[in-house]
Automatic annotation (TrEMBL):
It is found in: Cytoplasm. It is an enzyme of class 5 (isomerase). Pathway: Polyol metabolism; myo-inositol biosynthesis; myo-inositol from D-glucose 6-phosphate: step 1/2. The keyword Lipid metabolism applies. This is Inositol-3-phosphate synthase. It catalyses: D-glucose 6-phosphate = 1D-myo-inositol 3-phosphate. Pfam families: Inos-1-P_synth (PF01658), NAD_binding_5 (PF07994). Its EC number is 5.5.1.4. Its main location: cytoplasm.
Amino acid sequence: MASSGYNTPESQLESIVPVHPTSARRPHAITVQSENVSFTDDHITSKFVNRGSKVNVVDGQYIVTPVAQEIEFQTQRKVSKTGLMMIGIGGNNGSTLCATILANRHQITWHTKEGLQTPNYIGSLLRASTFSLGADANGQDIHVPVSDLLPMVHPNDLVLGGWDISGVPMDKAMSRSKVLDYDLQRQVAPHMALLGKPLPSIYYPDFIAANQEARADNLIPGDDKQVHLERIRADIRKFKKDNELDRVIVFWTANTERYADIIPGVNDTADNLLNAIKNSHSEVSPSTIFAVAAILENEPFINGAPQNTFVPGAIELSEREKSFIGGDDLKSGQTKLKSVLAEFLVNAGIKPLSIASYNHLGNNDGQNLSAERQFKSKEISKSSVVDDMVNANRLLFKAPAPGEKGKGEHPDHIVVIKYVPAVGDSKRAIDEYYSEIFCGGRSVINIFNECEDSLLATPLILDLSILAELLTRVQYRKEGEKEFSPLYSVLSLLSYMLKAPLVKPGTEVINSLNRQRNALEGFLKACIGLEGSSDLLLETRLW
């Protein structure tokens, strides 16, 4: 039965409102009939052939050799009881996510000028998007929600907690953020109040803007970074024990930090980083402390902000501990659109000459980014989103000479962010694409978009957390190996939701939205013994 909150009478209207399809619970209903996959009560085990090509270029000739490698995947079917601990839980993103989950969990409906609204997970790739399973007897494609391909955590089941430098209780934090409609806030506030106030967090003033100091009233005391690390680890263990959890996802959704300097002997290796923490070195950031804590507790850590949390030592530590990490920076509105349009232009044979992005932000994120060093972190993550698409077309863009380092010719990329308090959480963005077309002609595309920043970010946090939990239950083995192994520590399969995807050191970063989505679809299907989607459709094109 729907509920309007503890202090609001239930109405007959609310009691009959159906659960939104994106919030509905469905049993895992997919069985693949194939010799390449087996389903037991405990596992789904599948065989997959990873096909590709090796290319050698000799005197301008391309010598292509097809290659194939058989891999076996094993996915544990039992979904972990999962907690989500957010750093910055009292901010716009954290409070909005908590309220969204609680509204869905209690089926709270509310009124706006548009009429009655029902809680949902629209905006979530997993809950509101679909993949094709194949075609039925009539040749019609059958699509299922992404979350139905494999057993996944339902968002309503996430146990919520976390840290914040501001000690404002969660119901007041939601009100302070000014994101959700008042009628929803009014009804969900009693549930938010039960979350209490955030756990004390870490505050190193040098890493975030000085204008954040007024909010910093809920801090772990002292300057000893080793003590801070042990306190965070203890918080994770206590949260896990108190809530009888199998898994905790630790998620940074706090302020953007400045970039940390990479210093040999300090943060370049795992041992050096741990020693730097013991010595309270000034270049160890709060986000890196949280990341190390999660890694040492063998719980996944995801960085939703643009700073370089994962210094080389942190990546090496995750590899050594076989713990999972993912990042960086949530890819919500403008950047997602930018990657799509840039790919369209390049694939159409049109040469982007410059991309200029202007942003007006009025929330606390915007206030923090008004400081130059914090803005620099955001500028770096926003400016790299078209690199791989440009690199793929050397007819339009000059490549580096053989043996020459660098990325070659790229379009100019300008990023401007202005803090405009009156805008609030409703971000304004303008993108201008100046391109070369046929015979030296010029084309200019201007796009203006306005959106609630946190309402775009919240589904990304959910998707990243749910996928991270799933990936902890997937193992693989190559042909000839006896034992299954966990996936590699850096979860680059999360790239679709991230501006500056973290990948295995030394490998190519993929920013193309299509390639990122196709990779995720292909992987999830491989885990149930299916090939990736094919748009070749030979049955309609050849016979």
